[in-house]
Design a protein that fits this description.
It is a single chain. This protein has 257 residues and is an alpha/beta fold. It folds into two domains: 11-152 and 215-255, Rossmann fold, CATH 3.40.50; 155-211, Single Sheet (N-terminal domain of TfIIb), CATH 2.20.25. The protein has helices spanning 18-24, 33-46, 62-67, 79-86, 126-138, 216-225, and strands at 51-54, 72-76, 95-98, 110-115, 140-151, 164-171, 177-185, 190-198, 204-212, 228-234, 248-255. A seven-stranded mixed beta sheet has the order 3-2-1-4-5-11-10, with helices on both faces. Helix 3 (62-67) links the parallel strand 1 and strand 2. Helix 1 (18-24) runs parallel beside helix 4 and helix 5 crosses helix 6. The longest helix is centred in the N-terminal third of the chain and has 14 residues, at 33-46. The protein is globular and about 55 Å long. The structure holds S-adenosylmethionine. S-adenosylmethionine binds at residues 14, 16, 55-57, 60-61, 75-78, 81, 100-102, 116-117, 119, 122-123. One of its GO terms (biological process) is methylation. Pfam families: Methyltransf_25. One of its GO terms (molecular function) is methyltransferase activity. Residues 51-144 form the Methyltransferase domain.
Length: 257
């Protein structure tokens, strides 16, 4: 992160310390019912017994899924995010293990492991992402499913010689504003999401988060390394077809029986 360190943030919480967790559940955006409900509908439909969310966060998806009667466990790196989950109505239904989804194991075999909201990209090496697939497979019972929701990198919007793709430009009426852009390294497949917020008084904050992108075909190979095969690839939670114009995918791999 570039900018002032926030007092009270624990470095062990990674990119989601208290200063981020405290605003994560703000209404609207990814927390809007029209975003959350379609995801929970699909996950409830796929669940055939206990499920495990990698990087469960504040329980944005896990808590409403558990409220439908699906037994949900989670793995999460950030204690700050986990505290938010535990403090929510219904949060006590989701048992969270603090740890790294590349290697942390929880007891039990699951019908479904899921990893949503672009979070596979928070693991910034290919080896680490393969370990996520392996760890998912290790938690699945025979025939179990691993689901990933992730945006596609904006490579088709990168002309030669340019490495930046803007995704937000929102000047405020009061003189402040917000600018967001991704910066890609097409050699390493690493990229950063950059968020610049300027207050009406002209005070700015530059927040920069590292990611690694993988094209869907690379994820299919990761899945095969982990003993899984592609079962579905949708453009979104509405199960629409994945096409050349898709900007994200919801992919589901099945572990061997
Ligand atoms: C964008 S949030 C998504 C949270 C939740 N899944 C949701 O959909 O709202 C990303 C979460 O992934 C967690 N995270 C990032 N890397 C992780 C890792 N290697 N192992 C476990 N959790 C991780 C972060 O702490 C953060 O809570």
């Amino acid at each position: 992160m570039i900018g002032e360190a926030n007092a009270g943030d624990d470095p062990a919480d990674g990119w989601f310390p208290e200063s981020v967790a405290s605003g994560y559940d703000a209404p609207g955006g990814a927390n809007a019912p029209e975003v959350v409900t379609p995801a929970v509908d699909v996950l409830e439909d796929l669940a055939d017994g206990p499920v495990l969310e990698f990087a469960v966060g504040t329980g944005r998806i896990a808590v409403p899924l558990a409220a439908r009667g699906v037994p949900v466990s989670g793995i999460e790196l950030s204690r700050a995010m986990t505290r938010r989950l535990a403090g929510k109505p219904g949060g006590d239904a989701v048992e969270v293990t603090i740890g790294d989804m590349t290697k942390t194991r929880v007891p039990g075999r699951f019908s479904l492991v899921y990893l949503v909201f672009n979070t596979i990209g928070n693991v910034t090496t290919q080896d680490g992402q393969v370990d996520v697939f392996r760890n998912a497979a290790a938690h699945l019972r025979p025939g179990g499913l691993f689901l990933v929701e992730v945006g596609l990198p904006g490579l088709r919007r990168l002309p030669p010689g340019q490495d930046v793709v803007p995704f937000a430009m929102a000047p405020g009426a009061d003189g402040g504003g917000y600018v967001g852009f991704d910066q890609y390294d097409v050699v390493t497949q690493e990229f950063t999401s950059n968020h610049i917020t300027v207050s009406p008084e002209g005070k700015g904050r530059f927040h920069r988060i590292p990611f690694r992108y993988a094209w869907p075909a690379e994820m299919d190979l990761m899945a095969r390394i982990a003993g899984m095969r592609l079962k579905h690839r949708w453009a979104d939670w509405d199960r629409s077809s994945f096409t050349a114009e898709s900007t994200k995918h919801v992919s589901i791999w099945e572990v061997g029986r």
